[in-house]
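Bug report

Summary: structure tokens for Exostosin-1b differ between web form and batch submission.
Environment: batch mode, default settings.
Steps: 1) Submit the sequence below via batch. 2) Compare with the web form result.

Sequence submitted:
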Amino acid sequence: MQAKKRYLILLCAGACVLLLSFLGGVQLPAASGGRQDRSRTGHRPDQPWPHFSDPLHPFVPWDHTDTEEYNVHVSPRQKRDVNTSVYKGRRCRMDSCFDFSVCQRRGFKVYVYPQQKGDKTSESYQNILAAIEGSRFYTSDPGQACLFVLSLDTLDRDQLSPQYVHNLKTKVQNLPLWNDGRNHLIFNLYSGTWPDYTEDLGFDIGQAMLAKASISTENFRPNFDVSIPLFSKEHPRTGGERGFLRYNSIPPFRKYMLVFKGKRYLTGIGSDTRNALYHVHNAEDVVLLTTCKHGKDWQKHKDARCDKDNAEYDKYDYKEMLHNSTFCLVPRGRRLGSFRFLEALQAACVPVMLSNGWELPFSEIIDWNTAAVIGDERLLLQIPTTVRSIHQDKILSLRQQTQFLWEAYFSSVEKIVLTTLEIIQDRVLEHSSRSSLMWNSHPGGLFALPQYSGYLGDFPFYYATLGIKPYPKFTAVIHAVSPLVSQSQPILKLLLAVAKSQYCAQIIVLWNCDKALPAKHRWPATSVPVIVIEGENKVMSSRFLPYDTIVTDAVLSLDEDTVLSTTEVDFAFTVWQSFPERIVGYPARSHFWDSNKERWGYTSKWTNDYSMVLTGAAIYHRYYHYLYTNYLPSSLKNTVDQLANCEDILMNFLVSAVTKLPPIKVTQKKPNVSFVLLQSSRASRWADPDHFAQRQTCMNKFASWFGAMPLVHSQMRLDPVLFKDQVSILRKKYRDIERL
């Protein structure tokens, strides 16, 4: 009897094991020679943890699962293919699907596949490729590349779109360097199509990274993919308009508290939230307008509210609402992202996000809590109460941050692309990556290059945040282009005057003369070290190289024939210590728009208005030497070197682009004395009749590369305390400046 019981128990146990195996609940041990990746939770495959082989199915809206249209057009095989395409590489991370060794050997360089004859490319994708090819990351040699970008247009993968590229799967697989997508970056704005708008791209991306708009947190692979904003085809390639916040009004309230104007979807995905907006609309300070009048057959599907909504929709101007509202609602559309997001940022209208599950753009680096209100679609009715409860100090802070983020990362296609590449570079070169402060504070991550230094105190932008001051000494760099033939030459007088400054740490003479270096005894004896360096290739740009011998924060840049007294040098450096991120100096110039020629003009007229301070007598932070050398493209520096001109203009363009501020002019002992001397010098480049025309050309070439005119006009001149006051000269600290 007991034997029968044992057999019965064994039989039941065996049946249970077979049933569990059939259902996939238990994985039987099997030999595997392939490499097993670590799961998202960090669990190692060799541990006894259940393995679920079937991928999760994507969410399908409830109103489509049982419709005839859904069941007819989406077969089980198509559903399976979609799941496979979307989820196949979801476990990819930088340590498992990216080859770091290639980048360590070659540096972070990006290769763009050459375009093939017959391939159609949208204007937006052409702008993306142009931004990469114009950046400092670009290489035309695939053997030197760390990252690869397809020339095939992958932006619009909606099969109903005219921009959809057919047979992309075959074309991608045939690329000789594809390597299952390893070290590849794919840009995408639109994926999926009616009715469910999945995130399927229609081809196997393998181990490639995605720079994708409207990506969900479910499908986003942290520290591997990059979430980018949805932008229109009219979005500027370079430059872009500045934000619309021209001044800070206190209190920071506008005509409307909360606004929205856009399409309302009567059925399908994305319709729930927009259909419910009328519950919150009060036509006073909360104006949420929708229209059903879109699409070819909208009248066939219109509901009882359509006519009323359409009539009210037409009463309001969208731009007027945008610029006169404190908060702007950004609900999801058919996809998670919306054009309203960038529009709100630019208008300094604080975005109120209403798109559950959207991985916000550049979420890896940007703290969106400082610039937006993150709402919940399920709590729509609470949104007005929530935004009304935000204190006015917080509102002002949010609006200011929208302007910073817009201008730093979103105002052009180029900035969106460069931000994407910088994020990936920070992952690759993790030892020299940017901190959160560098990404989320002025001037932003694109201008703060971490390869320069890992310490924030070495940059001119963070002194106030860190509560520190720049080093109280400067290094003078004198640019010498004439041979040393007499002890009465201006360069020697200048050297002695600068050496007497109490703030001078050392003097560097950059010898860019064709003649041999003078003997050591030809230079006068001074109380500070004098270092003579032979210029690299004898070109103009060499004066802005980041020389290791410059050990101070401040650099006093001087032409060899500049005339300055010790008092003038001391005063200029004192002023610079209060404005370490700007150029501070003496000879000023200005720019203007010539409406007749429709180009930028350059003027040296002595007026109260200026936008540049020439680097023949100016103080600035040494970081700008590094930025000039490593940020600016070789095409601009080659222009400077070929003309032997415009290096001072280019430096002013760069610093104003970084700071969004003008330089600072300080008092001179004798107006424009250096310029008079320069004109009288036979060897001077200023005596060249083509010099002025070349500078006009430079202005327009530089403005074209920056995408806009970064120079800012100013009428401020800083004078010493009691300057020109009718008091005793003995009471004045910088008394020599007043003596003619």
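Above is the batch result. After comparison, the two runs are identical; trailing whitespace caused the diff. The radius of gyration is 32 Å. Residues 25-74, 79-85, 672-683 have pLDDT under 50 and may be disordered.
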